[in-house]
Amino acid sequence: MDSALEIFQPGLLDDRTVFITGGGSGIGRGICDMLGGLGAKIFIASRNPEKLGVAVEELSADGVTADFIIADVRDYEQVEAAIARCAERFGGIDILINNAAGNFNCPTAELSPNGWKTVIDIDLNGTFYCCKAAYPHLKASGHARIISITTTLARSGWPQAAHAGAAKAGIQSLTNALAVEWAPDGILVNSISPGPIAGTVGVDKLYIETGQEEVMISRVALRRFGKIDDIAGAVAFLCSPAGNYVTGTELVVDGGRQWTFASAS
Ligand code: NAP
Ligand code: COA
């Protein structure tokens, strides 16, 4: 068995629509392949039209109903318009995946106020904007899920990327609050915390380009980077009926890194 996709029943998500931010690359792209492969319609929002065009073309070639819109999650009006377009195009929204993020290594003493604000705006504010704009559609769904991609480094603190750690900690807190506030609306709200995932911008930029690959692998209990499919499979689990009683949870898929990771500095 090569892919987590094979353990799920074909057509599992046939009647579902997914709105995902940053689904044109990396982990988000893998989530599109997984949920689309299970029958869901996929609507992707992010900034780069070339990347999004290729993703939608490839998804369509695989038989997935997919579309995209250009939107910067830092702008509430763009998020609101993107959500409205998705609901109009596909008749509703059942699953919101908050995956878009920005990050870079930078000692906090050298981080500019705008550098800090940029990451908080993309990760934390963007996640809130998507949750808020999608809420009426999710409430109408009957199978609603919100899944935000975070990191355990939000809990430990993230030396050299304090901006991203703080933003993700905020997302976790928002997740827990919405899980309670929106439970009566039938909306299940969770996060997934990946460990370092091979073949992604995150790992390339933060660990490979900085020469930290070996040390980072040594900080994972399983002594290897994860696969995009590991995260996509966890998303599919939460979207499936097997996830019907899971809300307000951080699902950690990190090869045991949280118990071995001490510091990135
Ligand atoms: P990635 O390929 O760079 O994905 C980030 C996506 O966010 C991009 O597709 C980008 O698309 C989109 N994005 C960035 N800024 C945006 C904005 N202002 N508005 C709309 N979209 C925006 O990186 P990745 O490594 O797969 O990361 C995906 C998620 O996993 C992130 O939440 C990250 O924090 C999390 N994560 C990753 C790892 C890892 O090992 N890679 C580990 C833990 C957590 P555009 O350029 O088209 O805007
Ligand atoms: N070190 C220190 N500061 C940095 C930086 C770095 N490596 N990269 C950007 N910044 C600062 C900039 O200097 C700027 O601050 P300033 O105005 O005080 O100079 C601020 O951050 C915004 O940078 P800018 O390049 O204008 O932002 P952008 O909106 O074009 O891009 C980023 C956003 C910086 C997050 C960019 O890396 C990005 O688009 N990332 C998306 C992909 C990604 O990071 N994926 C990994 C997910 S884990």
Question: Summed up, what is this model?
Answer:
This protein is 44% helix and 14% strand.
Q: Would you kindly provide a written description of the structure presented here, covering whatever features stand out?
A:
The protein has 265 residues and is an alpha/beta fold. The chain has one domain (9-199, 228-252): 3-Layer(aba) Sandwich (Rossmann fold), CATH 3.40.50.720. Helices cover 44% and strands 14% of the residues. It is built from nine helices and seven strands; from the N terminus they run E-H-E-H-E-H-E-H-E-H-H-E-H-H-H-E. It has helices spanning 26-37, 49-61, 76-90, 113-139, 153-156, 162-181, 201-208, 213-218, 228-239; strands at 17-21, 41-46, 66-70, 95-98, 145-149, 188-194, 250-253. A seven-stranded parallel sheet has the order 3-2-1-4-5-6-7, with helices on both faces. The mean pLDDT is 96. The chain binds NADP nicotinamide-adenine-dinucleotide phosphate and coenzyme A. Coenzyme A binds next to helix 4 and helix 7.
